[in-house]
Amino acid sequence: MRSIRIRLLATLALGLTALLIGTAVFLDSLTRHWFYAEFDAHLAAGARGLTSMVEHEQEGVEFAPDPHELAQFEGADPPDYFQIWHSDGEELRRSALVDGFELPRIVGTFESPAYRAETLPSGCHVRMVGIQFLPQIDDEYEGEPPSDSMRSAVQLVLARDTRDLVAAIQSFRQVIGVVFITALAAGGIGMSLVVKHGLRPLKRISDQLGRLNEERLSQRIVMDRVPAEVAPIVDTLNALLERLESVFVRERAFSSDVAHELRTPLAGLHTTLEVALSKPRESAEYRVAMDDCLAICRQMESMVETLLLVARLESDQEAVCAQRVVLSDLMKECWETLGSDADRRDLRVSWQLARSTAVETDPGKIRIVLNNLYDNAISHTDEHGTISIQSHINTKSFTLQINNAASAVSPEQADRVFDRFWQADPARNSTGRHFGLGLGLCKRIVERLGGSIHVRCNDGQFQVRVDLPQGQVGR
Amino acid sequence: MRILVIEDYKPIRQSVVKGLREQGYAVDEAADGTEGQWLAVSGEYDVIILDLMLPEVDGFSILQKVRSESRNTSVLILTARDEVENRVRGLDMGADDYLVKPFAFEELLARVRTLVRRKYDSKCPTIRIADMVIDTTHQSVKRNGEFIELTAREFALLEYLALRMGEVVSRTDIWEHVYDFNSNATSNVVDVYIGYLRRKIERSGRPKLIHTRRGQGYVLGDTP
Predict the structure, then answer these.
(1) Which of A238, A381, B42, B85: disulfide with A404, CB 3.0–4.6 Å?
(2) What is the pLDDT of residues B16-35, one digit of tens each?
């Protein structure tokens, strides 16, 4: 499993290491350059000092050092190397150490000397500076001193052992190395603490989520001072928990309702069979008991089928078989099978149907919707009341509307009619036909067909309105 | 014993009523709350079997009405709702027992027998009067160790007299507790059945146990 903490730490460690290495390389380069510049400056200063020991005298150019000054070069530790030439290449002077080899003649000006690193035959690494200059006129020169153009230039090369320079650079590098390692370790600890602190809100969310289970879904993730980056996660998780809780509550209620609704017919079946078997009877009596049991089984079958259809619709497993249907004709056709029930209750029916235009929809499902709506209207319309059945059609939709007088249903109850197992009268209908599933089933079917269903209840009038799309079926 | 069954689900109501009648109980029935409540407060029932979810008037309201009228009828709630709060509410409102659907009819019968005994302050299912033993569970009667065959109605009459042993039981009481509304009975049916009982339990010169109190009724006991 990939860990954000480890990834963050690895990334930060890599970044820090790269930064430190870059800094170290830069510092090393800078200090090396600085050390060499300093070294070269001192070397150039030494070379310029040597130039002052070369003078243009009456006899010509002479190297006339002050022994004390010369000792600064030849007696230094380590001693310097130098060699001086006339402009024609004739050697004027060399230091005692330049023995058996020649220093390379590198030529720079007094103001801008030339530098070079070299390894002498002795294996000694040196840094050398070369200057070509006009020697000074001796103070004791008699007569008119020669002009600059009359004087010949002298070339001087001074070489100095770089052992101390290399040692100093090496020491500085060691300091950088120690600083690098210390900074890396401190940075690692610091980053670990920072990452841990930064991820603490996620840890708290994780801990709170870990304590949740199906019994504690009513709890929400609560955090003080939620970081802006984490707030959307907390909001999303809380919204998810709310949805989960409502689904759990609904499913629990559903299971309980199913169990409850099945208990009554099961009790009927149980008691009927038990009483029938409690003593020997005539075959006609057994037949009556078996007919009763069969009726109960059919009722339970009907309920289970309805529940399965609802479940299939909810999980989008119920296919839509669309075809061109004249809905007004279908509305009339469905009424024919239930109309006799309305007659028995002495109900009046008023029809107001749209012209016979075909709509593309699933007739089997529309039939289920119509049967349920008609059955509800017939069962719940007040005695001797009127059921008004209307349909309208326009370019976009087909609307069917059923109104009936139902004084037993309150406007508040209208909001609950689509809940599973909800019934206006909580008592079981003695016919066993109404389980409180019909309108919920209608809603799911209509939505599956891409339409909508609405219920209103005002002044004792119960109204159901179904809008179905024209020309397109299914979601 | 006379029982009222208030249950809107027809298959259960029909079977329970039939089973109880076959056990010798006088049974009236109601399919909705309104009729059930009217019967419960106007009839002399030993036990009312009451469903909670009823059309028009619910079971709790009927129970409340029965108890508010100080009726000493035992009430057995019969419902599909098995939540603890429903049971507690029913029992707290004065129900004597609670049975959840689906149930075994044998259990319903046993509970009804218990409620009947409780109503007449009798804890033992066997009643002894002199040399007669009445087993209310198995509905059998023995006298001096010998079984006596009785019809369900005869047994119901004997059981009612036995539960009120030593008391003078009027013909009206017998009529109200042993016969239901559907009984096709004439005015002297009580006397006729008392005659049948006497012939069966007092035959062969056995001592008389059913004594007539002229103008008052009958007393069951070994002394007149």
Answers:
(1) A381
(2) 999 999 988 999 999 989 99
Those residues with Cβ within 8 angstroms of residue B77's Cβ, 6 or more apart along the chain or in another chain: B50, B51, B52, B59, B63, B90, B95, B97, B98, B99
- Rounded mean pLDDT, A375-379: 83
CATH topology of domain A323-469: Heat Shock Protein 90 (3.30.565)
Instruction: List the single residue in A with minimal CA-CA distance to B79.
Output: A264
Cβ-nearest to A425 among B19, B55, B81 = B55
Q: Indicate if B26 and B109 belong to the same structural domain.
A: yes
Contact B81 A260 (CB under 8 A): yes
Q: Which of A96-105, A253-262, A408-417 has the highest mean pLDDT?
A: A96-105
**Are B105 and B150 found together in one domain?**
no
B152 and B200, same domain (yes or no): yes
**Is pLDDT of A428 > 60?**
no
Rounded to whole angstroms, the Cα distance separating B68 from A450 reads: 55
What is the third-level CATH fold of A4-137+148-169?
Beta-Lactamase (3.30.450)
Length of chain A: 475
Contact A356, A329 (CB under 8 A): yes
Q: Which two tokens stand for residue B9?
A: 């689900």
Q: What is the mean pLDDT of residues A76-80?
A: 86
Domain range for B150 is: 126-220
Domain termination residue (choose one: B119, B150, B165): B119
Give chain B positions within 8 Å (CB) of A426. Answer: 53, 58
Identify residue A147 by its one-letter amino acid code: S
| CATH number of the structural domain spanning residue B199 | 1.10.10.10
Q: Are residues B66 and B131 in the same domain?
A: no
Strand intervals (E) in A148-259: 154-161
CA distance linking residue A473 with residue A450, whole number of Å: 6
Residue of A nearest to B7 (CA): A430
Q: Which residue has the tokens 């499993």?
A: A1
Residue B81 sits in the same domain as residue B136 = no
pTM over 0.80: no
Instruction: Read off the amino acid at residue A438.
Output: G
Residues of A in contact with B11 (CB under 8 A): 265, 268-269, 271-272, 292, 295-296
Give me the CATH topology for the region A247-314: Helix Hairpins (1.10.287)
Read off φ and ψ for residue A163, nearest 5 degrees.
Answer: -55, -50
Tell me whether strands A154-161 and A125-133 are parallel, antiparallel or unpaired. antiparallel
Return the closest-CA partner of residue B166 out of B198, B124, B129: B129
A415 against B102, higher pLDDT: B102
Integer-rounded Cα radius of gyration of chain A = 54
Band of pLDDT at residue A425, cut at 50, 70 and 90 = low
The answer on B104 and B136 residing in a single domain is: no
